């Protein structure tokens, strides 16, 4: 118990000291530059990744096996390694530079990691099983149908492609497209609103920003609970 409390206190204190610091000057991703960068990343190792997870005290926010114990932090278990590597590079190189506590923590931690450590921890999280979030999300029939339609069929009238066309029917993700099954609903909603409101800019060719803008708050909430209840199988 003492070590867990210490980690929860130490990680934010270390990361928040001095704020973000000077912002690196990283060019926005293109499909070509992202694919080239990921192809040049070292091969990840699960055992080394578990050590990085322990040494960097990732469990204090993201849970022992990457399943978040908190509404404030994302779950990482079962996440695609390419997406985890991309996120860490985005934090490190300032493609993600949001001005709130969780983002500040991740910027500091990512800047302290090598490419090998990033690849290793991505391999570790990918090896953990996808599962629904630990707190079942109640979704009335009409809201379930709303979300299920967006996931499976999209909405041609608003030029919304089905979520499943990139994230998979079961939210399992693929390559740089993240797994959404079992994701913490509050994190999902915060992310979608950040894309919708133009506060997050690290999506390739602004794909998610364009898809999030037409969504209503009710649709985002329904999708968050829909994906939280999936197991990704």
How many helical stretches? 12
Q: What is the number of strand segments?
A: 0
Poorly predicted parts: 1-10
- Let me know the CATH homologous superfamily of the largest domain: Cytochrome c-like domain
The oligomeric state of the chains shown is single chain
- Radius of gyration, in Å, reads 17 Å
For the record, give the distance between the C-alpha atoms at the N and C termini, rounded to a whole number: 33 Å
Q: What topology emerges from the helices and strands here?
A:
Blueprint: H1 2-16, H2 31-40, H3 46-55, H4 59-62, H5 81-93, H6 101-111, H7 115-127, H8 141-152, H9 164-167, H10 185-196, H11 207-212, H12 217-228
For this entry, give a set of tags.
Cytochrome Bc1 Complex, Chain D, domain 2; single chain; 233 residues; disordered N terminus; globular; 2 domains; 52% helix; mainly alpha; 12 helices
Structure description:
The structure is a single chain. 40% of the residues are buried. The chain contains twelve helices and no strands. It folds into two domains: 41-127, Cytochrome Bc1 Complex, Chain D, domain 2 (Orthogonal Bundle), CATH 1.10.760; 141-229, Cytochrome Bc1 Complex, Chain D, domain 2. The protein has helices at 2-16, 31-40, 46-55, 59-62, 81-93, 101-111, 115-127, 141-152, 164-167, 185-196, 207-212, 217-228. The radius of gyration is 17 Å and the shape is globular. Helix 5 (81-93) packs across helix 6 and helix 5 packs antiparallel against helix 7 (115-127). It has 233 residues and is mostly helical. The protein is 52% helix and 0% strand.
């Amino acid at each position: 118990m003492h070590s867990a409390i210490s980690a929860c206190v130490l990680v934010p204190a270390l990361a928040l000291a001095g704020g973000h610091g000077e912002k690196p000057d990283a060019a926005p991703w293109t499909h070509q530059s992202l694919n080239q960068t990921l192809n040049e990343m070292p091969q990840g190792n699960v055992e080394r990744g578990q050590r990085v997870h322990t040494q960097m005290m990732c469990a204090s926010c993201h849970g022992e096996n990457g399943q978040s114990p908190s509404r404030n932090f994302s779950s990482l278990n079962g996440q695609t390694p390419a997406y985890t590597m991309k996120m860490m590079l985005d934090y490190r190189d300032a493609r993600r530079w949001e001005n709130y506590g969780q983002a500040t923590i991740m910027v500091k931690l990512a800047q302290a990691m090598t490419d090998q450590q990033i690849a290793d921890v991505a391999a570790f999280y990918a090896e953990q099983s996808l599962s629904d979030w630990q707190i079942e999300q109640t979704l009335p029939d009409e809201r379930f149908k709303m979300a299920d339609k967006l996931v499976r069929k999209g909405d041609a009238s608003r030029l919304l492609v089905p979520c499943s066309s990139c994230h998979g029917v079961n939210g399992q993700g693929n390559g740089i497209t993240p797994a959404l099954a079992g994701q913490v609903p509050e994190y999902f909603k915060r992310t979608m609103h950040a894309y919708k409101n133009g506060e997050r800019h690290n999506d390739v060719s602004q794909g998610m920003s364009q898809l999030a803008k037409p969504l209503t708050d009710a649709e985002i909430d329904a999708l968050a609970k829909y994906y939280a209840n999936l197991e990704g199988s």
